[in-house]
């Protein structure tokens, strides 16, 4: 097993550095597309850790600036919310 296979970029979905770099080498450099293919940013942390790391990897591998890559919009809920709050249960705090 290579070292890149051991480096976890997305802990929520067990996505490795090797997986991200392979996609970039195949020409997939859009962070939204990488997100759809690997599910980075879709776990409990909502990408707070992995999305900036993946953007940095894309920038390094493509020569683009970090700002050119762009960070996907965060979708609500950003943090866990009790289901009762979403359905209007008065008893939820």
Numbering strands along the chain, what is their spatial order in the largest sheet?
1-2
Low-confidence stretches: none
Q: What's the CATH topology label? A: Arc Repressor Mutant, subunit A
What is the ordering of alpha helices and beta strands? HEEHHHHH
Give the radius of gyration.
Answer: 16 Å
Which range best describes the helical content: under 10%, 10-25%, 25-40%, 40-55%, 55-70% or over 70%?
A: 40-55%
Q: Note the quaternary state here.
A: single chain
Task: Give an account of the 3D structure.
The structure is a single chain. The chain is mainly α and 93 residues long. It has one domain: BFD-like [2Fe-2S]-binding domain (Arc Repressor Mutant, subunit A, Orthogonal Bundle), CATH 1.10.10.1100. The chain is 46% helix and 5% strand. It contains six helices and two strands. A two-stranded antiparallel ribbon has the order 1-2. Strand 1 (8-10) and strand 2 form a beta hairpin. The chain is elongated and about 50 Å long. The model has no long low-confidence stretch (mean pLDDT 86).
